[in-house]
Each structure stands twice: as C-alpha cells, then as structure tokens.
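To: structure desk
From: M.T.
Subject: fold request, one chain
Message: Could you run this one when you get a chance? Sequence is below, nothing fancy, just the single chain.
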Amino acid sequence: MNTRDEQWRVDLRAKIKAKDRTNLTRVQMPELDAEYRSHIRNEEVNLGLTPAQAMAEAQRCLDCVNPTCMEGCPVSIKIPDFIKFIETGEFLEAAKVLKMTSALPAVCGRVCPQERQCEEKCIHVKMKKESVAIGHLERFAADFERESGQISVPATAPANGIKIAVVGSGPAGLAFAGDMAKLGYEVVVFEALHEIGGVLKYGIPEFRLPNKIVDVEIDNLKAMGVTFINNCIIGKTIAIQELEENGYKGIFVASGAGLPRFMNIKGENLVGVMSSNEYLTRVNLMDAANPESDTPVYKGKKVAVIGGGNTAMDSVRTARRLGAEKAIIVYRRSEEEMPARLEEVKHAKEEGIEFLTLHNPIEYIGNETGRVTQMVLQLMELGEPDASGRRSPVEIPGKTRIVDVDEVIVSVGVSPNPLIKQSVPELETTKWGTLVVNQDTMQSVSLPIIFAGGDIVRGGATVILAMGDGRRAAKAMDEWIKNKS
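Reply: Done. Structure tokens follow.
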C-alpha cells in the first residue's frame, strides 16, 4: 500500500499553517428533509459528503505527531493517515488505510459514536473547537471506494490449513473473521438467522444503515476467503463440542445479546406491548411493515417507546415512518443522561418525536379485548449519581400521569441468549448470563478453546466496541494457537 514517505507528510503540513487549519469551519453533513424522511423508511437520512467537502474537512486535521484521536478508536484505525490521503484527493488510498484495521469502515462511519471516542480525543476539542469530522470522513472514503467499483481486498497470509469457527455474524464476529483471514486461517462463520450481518441487519434500520452497505462489507470478507453458513444455530443445529470434533482449533463466540428485558410491571403482557428487539427484527428482517407479510407488524397511531438509547431512537423513528401520528420517547432520566447519540436525538426531534423525560411507566391499561390503551407514568427527579456516574432517577411521591397509547415498545436493555451456556454447561458465566473471559485476550476462563466478544461478554455494546473485542480476540487466539503447536 502507498503510505508515502515522511517528507510527503512534512510538505503537506506546510501547505497550510496549523493556525489556519484550526480556524477552518467543520463541514456539516447534508441530510434528507425531516418532514419527507419521517414518512420514508428505507432512505438514508445522512447523505454523505461530496469530494470537495471531504477534502476541505480533511484540511482541518493537524496530522499530530502523537495523534490522540487514535487513543479513542477501539480498532486502532490510522486516522491521520487516511485523512491526509483524503486531503490530497487520493480517496482510494484512504480506503485502503481504513481496511488495514477495520473490516467495516462504511458501517463504522455511519453508526459509531465518534463524538464519544476518536472525535472526543481530537486536539481541536482541547482548543475548545469542534473536532475534525472523523466519522464523516471514514464514511466518505469507504463510500467512494464502493461507488468507484475499485474495491480493494486486504492482503492475506498464505493459508495455514487451520480451521476457526465464529458463532454469529454481527460486528464482533465480522471483525474477528477479517483479522483471522488476514493471518491465513480458514474461517467459517455460523449465523442463526437467514441473513448475514447480525445486529447490523436486524437491529439497525435502513434509514441509518442501508443493508446494501453491510452486504458490500460482507462480500469483501468473502473475497478474503471467509465462509458464511446461515440458518445454523450453534447449540442446536450443531453443538459447540461438535465444532471441536470436526477439527476447529479455535471458536470465537459472538452470538450477541438477543434476549430482551422487560420491566415486570402490571399490563406488560397486553397485546400491543413488545420489545424493541422483536419490533426492529420483524420490521428490518422479516418485511413486517408490508401488509402482505406473513407476520405483519401492528402499526400504532399512538406509540410510546420506553428507553433512551440508540435502539429506542431507532424504534421510535421506525414507528413514525410506519404511520404513528404521535410517537413518544419515555425516559426515566433527563435528556442529558440519555445514552443515545446526540445525532440520533437531534434527528428524532426534527422528525416530530416527543420526549417525555423524567417519566417512568409503572402500569399499562388495556381494553376488554386485552389491547393496551393507556400507560401510567411515574414522574421522576434526579438524585445522586449511580455507579455509572449518571444521576439516579427518584420517584416524586404521588405524582403520576396517564397517557393514551395503542402500542408500546420496551427498549430497556437485552441479555445474552442462554443457548450457548445450555449447550456447554462448563462455560463460566456471570449472574447476568454473560461469558466470563480474560479482558486482555477475550479467552474463556473455563474453556481455553473458546474466545468471545461483543454483547455476549459485555451485555450491551456499541458496534465499534464489539469490533474491538473481535480484533483483540483474533490477536490473542493466533498467539494461543501458535504457542500450542
């Protein structure tokens, strides 16, 4: 790959003085009109940067000698390197730099919380200025390569004949598979669903992450030699032990956390109350918004989504697109405590979503046919910070309100599917059902052949953190296998 020499970097820095670079204004991502997009389910909200916008934004990067932005990247992307290629118009070279460490650059450029990771560490922030739009630039480089038709495939080492199994094709599994393929391993990914991509397909709506983007990233892994087998449930279709018996020398478990949590309050079993996991999976993966579908989803007119994370935003914005006249986020803390990305909150508000913060449901009320018609909300106030640093919500005694609803989507967290543990009882798990691993190597503390990452370990993680787990596990598994032989 063309990395240029140090003199090239020196000359590039000299073209524009550092002070002038810091005075440049951050580019704004073009977006679809809010009123239009709130009724269109499969058109992406963010439209991407033009080449001129990308080159202008890339000029803001100071190409720091010690790039603190990289400290905030869980997959260690060489951020200044790819940005400098964009600055000089060498967009395909920028994409190659991204692929050195990231299996999913077009995905990460769209859904990663850059504002809390790489961009938060940008030197501009320390100078009380807006960070370089690293996420926008990552998306631009990946999109440019795809649209150019000149898609590069990362180099792989000669095949070593060692078979590795991956359980789950979400971000952790895909990142792991990409790194192991580069090292020369024969990688087979087993996916329980009929579509490859895991949460990238079933959990994130197309207005945020189009399926075609995910498919291109997966095709790139196939070109590197990774094999995908769908409709195969490890723990039922094939037991974990069978993988070892069939010659797999390492197993990476990235089966996610697909078991929804509920609040165990009165009326939660009424018709019209469902988890965000079910709702998004049916709409995104099963065409349930189509009235001709075998399992059409109910399209509520007064929809409440309980929760304040990105999944809650995805759910409420999906409900709006499916015809909800009133779509509400109900969150027990204040907006400042919401874990959702600021961009997702902004987009939701622009699309007419109502926010009821410092409210918590305590009961759902149904009609004579058993369908939900109202919810009782407890008013809250903020108390002392909890273990996460966020101020804990406290009930205001005697303060409640009733709100009319015809559909409630509960988005208060997920737990790992217990299938893997049931299949391998000797696997050590926490009281929450997550696998216990060495945090440095991601290797199971009870079964050395098993490594794991993503939600099955964390209980809930961003795409990029899951990918970081996958990369860390690949490095450690490679060392473990070599040390055994």
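Reply (cont.): The longest helix spans residues 463-484. Let me know if you need anything else for the meeting.
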